[in-house]
Amino acid sequence: MLDLAFNKGxxxxxxxxxxxxxxxxxxxxxxxxxxxxxxxxxxxxxCERVRDFGYKVHSIEGEERVVIGIVGVGDVTACLESIExxxxxxxxxxxxxxxxxxxxxxxxxxTIIRVDRNDIGGDEFIIMAGPCSVESEKQIMETADAVAAxxxxxxxxxxxxxxxxxxxxxxxxLEGLKLLRKAKAATGLSIITEVMSDRDVxxxxxxxxxxxxxxxxxxxxxxxxxxxxxxxPVMLKRGLSSTIKELLMSAEYIVAHxxxxxxxxxxxxxxxxxxxxNTCDIAAVPVLNELTHLPVIVDPSxxxxxxxxxxxxxxxxxxxGADGLIVEVHPCPGKAISxxxxxxxxxxxxxxxxxxxxxxxxxxxxxxxxxxxxx
Length: 375
Ligand code: PEP
Ligand code: MN
What we know:
alpha/beta, Alpha-Beta Plaits, TIM Barrel, binds phosphoenolpyruvate
């Protein structure tokens, strides 16, 4: 788990905060795994040597086995050789992926992100559910009660809505955030909601437990950098026509700028196919699991645009090893202000949750088995 040591290490070693763009882009990254129970002096000596070579210590993680992340520009081979010969060092390697800190090379364990009582990316399959938009107190409270009773852990609902038409409902904004807070107080559900602009990050972070970055904003680099400075987990949705590499590079922005708690979301991409609203790239889940340690969530609602397809795609997401789902649910989808056609009503959501259970049971066994195998 990316724990407090990630930030604590940076402060203690005075590395001057997160890496700058040039360090990540043009520069090189390395990781140093220390031996089990390496001493503080040995760790400090490695950090000192890193600085002698003109590199920066980006992060220091782990309690028993410390892993040091290094960025910068310089003679990487000489630096690696020198560090590998130092006492307490087990291995020093260069990260070859263009995305450094989010790559599996950097971290072989899965990142687990604690949100209230739940671990995203751990051995619990996470359900985020709720309406596309927060529309009214009655709508959000009714939905929150229903999805909590059916087993969801997070309530979704947009207060700031990215709409294709400027004439469509843009969201209740602050009023919507307050309603989400009320729903959390009533049900205990954690809140995930979208933030569209860097100007609103602080405000939304006051009300939300997870900040959602919509597909249309996946490459809003100013926003991504601001999220790096924010202490809330971020769920980054894949852009409408973004490659997996671009998604990971966007996640890298957030992590490189200081926020390690990023969740990725496959929500379908635009293709020539018109039978569904988007084309769900279901293979993105295992691809991401190979390339990154970050949790991966599937959004079957935006991926299909059609409520009848949501349960089947949800089952596929569980079976293929996603960490959870984000699903649109509305007490009366026919009256929804946005995305009614893809929203489940409450009985449909309840029935989907029941039908997912056997799949989730198998998912859990394999997740726990995986943890045992790597222990
Ligand atoms: C949403 O979650 O309601 C949304 C707008 O999603 P996306 O950014 O994936 O289109
Ligand atoms: Mn929506």
